[in-house]
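Supplementary Methods S3. Input chains for the assembly prediction are listed below.
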Amino acid sequence: MTSVHTHLHGSVGGDHDHHGPDRAFLLRSENITLAPGAGKGISTALLGAGVIGIVLAGIGSTMIGPLGKAHALASIHVGVMACLAMVLGNLWYVLLQSLVRAGWSATIRRQQENVATLVPLVGLGVIGVLIADLLLGHPLFTWMNKYQGDYILEGKAAWLNAPFFYLRVIVYILIWTMLARRMARLSLEQDRTGDKWLSAAAGKTSAWGMLVFALSVAFAAFDLLMSTDFRFFSTMWGVYYFAGSAYSGIAVCILVTAMLRRAGKLEGVVTDEHNHDMGKFLFAFTVFWAYIGFSQYFLIWYSNIPEETAYMLARKQGGWQVIFYVMAFGHFLAPFILMLFRPLKKRPVPLIIMSLWAILMHLVDIFWIVRPMVYSGQPGHTTDTIGLGGLWVDVVAIGGVVAVFAALVIRKVASGPLVAVNDPYMNQSLEHKNYV
Amino acid sequence: MARHSTGPIYTTESGVPVHGIVAEYATAADVYRAAEMIRDAGYTRWDVYSPFPIHGIDEAMGIRRTRLPILIACIGLTGAALGYLMQYWMSAVDYQLVVQGKNPASWEAYIPITFEMGILSAAFTAILGMLAFNKLPMWNHPLMRKDRFLRVSDDRLMICIEACDEKFDQEKTRHLLEAAGGTNVDLVEEEPEPVKEEPAGH
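Predicted structure tokens for the full assembly:
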């Protein structure tokens, strides 16, 4: 099929201007590089706003009752875990494209590499949360306080013990950093040398990297999210977190490319056809998230085993059920119905709105996982109500973390060429079209 | 079929109705260019025959997007809704049975079958709708009677403009196909009406 394709475009391209891209013109340097200092203003503003938000959350933590510190820390954890999901989602796309030798996405892959290489910085955020948790006496990872005689926790002690836990978190961050750095380094080296075999090397890395990625993300999700409600266990958990990360990750990629296009860059390089395929990913992971989320919920609901059901019960009463239904409609049903329509997957403005919505919904998802634990003396047996009084702390804390993350993304994007110019699939990507 | 209702019916010298005019092209690029010319000349009832898929030929032919997805979405959602209602009626209305102390009207229990019903009806609509829109199965076609047509499963590309097209004109259409670079331009005879065999002995 490839030879026919090439033959067709090779011979038709000359005298039909809607076919066959003028590669040299499209990849001219002012189209694929940002001016020095571009985005500096907005990223500095975001960074400032983010730091102010986090500081406000710190101040607010002293004003909203005795558990204020735990409350604020949980909110920051929500923001960090959501940003980690977005970073890991983009790392997954980078690995996936090398693994399957995707052609269509060669022009957008650099942005995914940019986001993925932020993993050590977000990892520092995770470590920061763990240090704060340690200093505050484990309000977040309550199992570290060793509930005496807790039968379930004793059964899990071989896995859930502090030294092993901290070691694992460090290992996860190192694995992701190594994978992201290596993929980005091969891609940037190809920019300079044009050596097509670097793509083959990236493919080899992604083959084992995908396996390592899948396992590390699943176990990280167990450790950093599931263990906040330590009696609970679900084998779906890793996939659930991954589903959210691929969903919010492609949303970040869509937003980055959309911003660059609005800044007058990547003209004709990233088109509505690429938008369409990214939109399909967003659509697909809306459905995938719902499928995984419902499967997890359904089995727990049906079997009705106390230590599993307690988790869902805590999140389906006292006001938290509002979030449950908001997600059923806002994270799945509404985007599913809307994105059946092609323009919402393809046209820039609707797609930007859907992506912002996706990120918001992902934040709500992580919020629903982490925050109900704060006011429960007995994890998994909460009688807490949603308590809107301290909600402003959640807003400034999560907003602050996300703003800092956005600032980091913008800095990273502005730091180098916007396209992997020497990718062997560049021509295919430039002329990419969704037929039908 | 439109050829019976509108436009003049062309016949060959031997008096057989004309199905259309066929022309051969050597490469995908040639047929692509020819398709654009024929599209721009305003023809609507014609087709390109090729041994392999040609990317973008639908655009060059001016074929509009299929309306099948709308049909699939409507019937798929209807199927899902019916699946849900069926279960609701069976377990919560007609024959209530409390299992495991759960509410007979629990939406959770209905989701898998609702989902399956949605998929099933959407998939059947997709495959049957595709066949219907493509007028399949089609057991024979007038072009099959042409020996040279067999080469479109090998190394030739062909365009056939059908006589039922409003713009069809034996001379002008032939000139257009030739101007578009076609070779071996030829008339295609319509399938003869099936002859009813008299039962033997009568």
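The first helix of chain A runs from residue 2 to 12. The CA atoms of residues 37 and 414 of chain A lie 8 Å apart.
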